[in-house]
Design a protein that fits this description.
alpha/beta; binds flavin mononucleotide; Rossmann fold; single chain; two-stranded antiparallel ribbon; 187 residues; oxidoreductase activity, acting on NAD(P)H, quinone or similar compound as acceptor; 5 helices
Length: 187
Amino acid sequence: MTTILHVDSSTLGEGSVTRELTAYAVERFKAHHPNAKVERLDLVADPIPHLMGRPEDQSFANQLKAADTIIIGAPTYNFTIPTQLKAWFDRLAIAGETFRYTENGPEGLLKDKRVIVAIASGGVYEEGHSFEHNQSYVRAFFQFLGLEAEFVVANGVAISADSKLQAISKAKTGIDQLAAADEPVDA
Ligand SMILES: Cc1cc2nc3c(=O)[nH]c(=O)nc-3n(C[C@H](O)[C@H](O)[C@H](O)COP(=O)(O)O)c2cc1C
């Protein structure tokens, strides 16, 4: 059975752009896998404590390993992801479990998963811009674990109401395309 892990980290509740996009993505991916099990992590309603020492608890890493599709809301707060999302990342990178060090450098141990990341930002920062530390960081983090994240980006949502609507609509089209590319293995 397909397992979808649905992760949100926006603090903006009902008005959140990324929460709207991840909910939409879960719905679209479920359309391809009607029997999918959806696991939920709301990192604001149920925050993960910041690390004190090394990550001993492997339950979040195990949950990630058990998921087939991971759908993550990653708002841009002060140029990067929310601290709530970072606290989850801190539980996922565990040497010997999700990555390992080799003589040739670190090697990710995860494979065969889709990581779909919905980003929203008030302004517009493309990867490579000196203020852009969300998409590039999330991409690198999952590459480190062996996974290639796929992104939908709603940017410029603070520029105007029209710009926000357009950004959300474009991101939803992107989600439709990503979901359509999914194999209906257990439909
Ligand atoms: C605390 C806070 C910090 C923010 N910092 C940035 C920022 O650095 N750059 C930016 O483009 N937008 C910034 N914004 C705007 C958000 O990226 C925008 O509201 C986006 O919709 C957030 O996603 P969400 O609606 O899912 O929470 C910030 C918003 C908040 C609430």
